[in-house]
Write a structure and sequence with these properties.
Elements (H helix, E strand, L loop, with lengths): L30 E2 L21 H6 L4 H4 L3 E3 L6 H6 L1 E3 L2 H12 L8 E10 L5 E8 L2 H17 L2 E6 L2 E10 L7 E11 L8 E11 L2 E9 L5 H20 L6
Length: 252
Amino acid sequence: MPRPPARALVAPALSAAALLSVSACALAGQEQAAPPPVNVPASQSPAAAPTLTEAQARAALVTEADLGESWVPTRGFATWREAMLKATAEPGECAGLLDALYADDFFGPDATTRAAVGLDDEWGGAQLRYQVVAHRPDALDQALRRLGELPEQCGSFTAEAAGGPLSVEVRAVGLPEIGDARQALRIVVGAVSEYEDAPRLTLDVAAVRVGDDAIAVTNGSLGEVPSEATLTAVELGTSRLEEVRKRGRAEV
């Protein structure tokens, strides 16, 4: 059954049969030549309210039912994670990006992941990970700022993985005006090879802050990245997180 058309997205797709065991990460929006202004307030004070309970954070998750009939709970990490994201690079900021992608950690060691879910697209071979994270608003905004600076700092660089050199491209991607602050990237990681069918991985990363909580979405594939699923996860996830917070900090 053919996939419904995606709403809007940018960037190259990827492919390589050897790495298709489970699939990968990507994001919706419109790619821009230069990074958009980071949508964060000028200053933030640390949050005074306690973080969400685990039950409340789980209530803000998206599920396979939200994304369409081709999506199922994940069966494990995609093999491209080890093959194409466990890599080293210079300068440090660029290496840090690869580390964050490998670990699915964009907010630093002091942030707390309250709930997370992994989903696989059985038709197209993509893999999506969605997290609800708690941290101080100023720390979340600082992380979003760093993401927004990466297209300029690490727009194109070379990394070294166990299987050989990789070329990495980082571009800014637009998001709807949701949450209190937001940022999104598209990252394309390709094996440096003389062969046209060399593995090429596309990952989209989106993060949205809502008060002292945030969502993070990664969605990627060695084939076509399903941008409609990413945008749905970002918009629906933000809406659910806002609703959970409105109901207060009582148990769900």
